[in-house]
Amino acid sequence: MSQNILVVDDDHKILKILQHTLSKEGFKVTTAASGEEALQIAKQAFPDLVLLDIMMPGMDGFETYQRLKAIREVPVIILSARSDEIDKVVGFRMGVDDYQTKPFSPTELALRVKAVLRRSKEQKVKSENSLQYGCLTLDYDKRVVEINGQKVELTPKEFELLWLMASNPNRVFTKAHLLDKIWDSSFYGDDNTVTVHIRKLREKIESDPSKPAYIKTVWGTGYKFEHLE
Fold it and tell me: Residues 215, 223: contact at Cβ < 8 Å?
């Protein structure tokens, strides 16, 4: 079954070029000329990967990215006419999978798409049972976390919180998103619930909770599980 690529860009020429190039590579391609249109498409048939322009009128690429991620996990490659390092830093801190500066080679971009999809598939297979980051290992089936081979006792919610973040390394989660994902909409809590669980997790898995190596605070936004490749 062909994988579905959603291309989001307000430049219709780019949409046409990428639709042609990716279709030739065997992908099913859907296009959107705005962030709002992309969200509507995603709600009906979620794509396997999104190529997303940053500079669009109305809802920009970064906001569109956050809203797409709130609907469902999806690999994203950012497209931008700007080569500013700050855009790349912001994008990667938010958890995007790759960043392509315009102008670009459609053939090269197709290769990037294939590489990101391959990594995403490998991560999905891996996340079905276990994860390992340095001395930290997580086994989802057994609900076991170990550091240097020593078991760490976590509560069910602590494990779910750690697994969600660790299976999406470098992605920034807001407190509201974590509250909704782990405690679901039937739970009437507040942001402090997340803060307390993060603090307890750090006390259990970080060698120095005051200078965490894994669970980092993204000031003004939320938290992320940091993994430097």
Answer: yes
